[in-house]
Specification:
The protein has 5 helices and 5 strands. By secondary structure, it is an alpha+beta fold. Keywords: Membrane, Transmembrane, Transmembrane helix.
Length: 253
């Protein structure tokens, strides 16, 4: 007869209940130390990795957009140089910059302005293209350095939507409101609600507008970045007497 094998089963009375911490075997100090060291090392590695991502992400995006822009602009004149047998990277990009500069000089003249006006008149008569052109022109005019042609005159802070809350906006024009109490100067303040191309227009008393020491470009950066580029301190500008460029609204009898 084959010898019976000894039973290696554990009695039910001695079985370890995983849900009962009183019956679980005690862990050794070395095991607890290893787990603590692993947790600290994992936390340190994850923090340093995220720090590296935060530092390298804007650098990578900047280089990618810059490289794409150079290749895009270089592609306008590089095929022309390729037909001439000249293969120098960046030559088309430099040619494009010179071309833009010459166009600026030409448009500044009377003849160039007239030709540009005729071309703009023709584009505005096209069904679909006129909307794209008008939107792109408004954006370029808004960030233009020429204060006479810029759509955004100043950065403004107004009390909106309730007392104690403020909103960033841009002063676009001013009007004179005639009432029984007298004339009141109102500024048209554009408050973007979706980056820059969608927003609300508020008519606010010029004396109630806070004009911070921010340029138009800084104001656009604050709105586009969702407030992440907000400076730590904002001071209002001194009230400088400005020329009256307002538009008088006639009161309806």
């Amino acid at each position: 007869m084959a010898e019976e094998k000894e039973s290696t089963s554990v009695p039910l009375s001695q079985a370890v209940d995983p849900e009962d911490p009183a019956k679980t075997p005690p862990t050794s100090p070395n095991s607890a130390t290893r787990k603590a060291c692993c947790a600290v090392l994992q936390s340190w590695v994850s923090k340093k990795f995220m720090t590296g991502c935060v530092v390298l992400f804007p650098v990578a995006v900047t280089f990618f957009i810059t490289w794409w822009f150079i290749q895009f602009v270089d592609g306008f004149f590089s095929p022309l140089y390729a037909k001439l047998g000249v293969d120098i990277f960046g030559l088309g990009f430099l040619t494009s910059l010179v071309f833009v500069f010459l166009v600026g000089i030409f448009v500044s003249s009377w003849l160039g302005a007239t030709i540009f006006w005729l071309g703009e008149w023709f584009i505005k008569r096209m069904p679909l293209v006129r909307h794209i052109y008008s939107a792109s022109k408004q954006i370029s005019t808004a960030i233009s350095s020429d204060q006479n042609a810029a759509a955004f005159k100043e950065v403004a802070i107004i009390r909106h939507p309730r007392v104690g809350e403020y909103a960033f906006g841009f002063i676009t024009s001013s009007v004179i409101l005639q009432s029984d109490k007298g004339d009141e100067e109102l500024c048209s303040v554009y408050v973007p609600t979706n980056h820059l191309y969608i927003g609300d227009i508020f008519l606010v008393n010029s004396e109630e507008i806070i004009r911070p020491n921010l340029s138009i470009r800084e104001g656009i950066e604050i709105i586009v970045s969702g407030g992440m580029t907000m400076p730590q301190m904002i001071a209002p500008l001194e009230q400088i007497p400005r020329k009256n460029q307002s538009i008088r609204l006639n009161r309806i009898p």
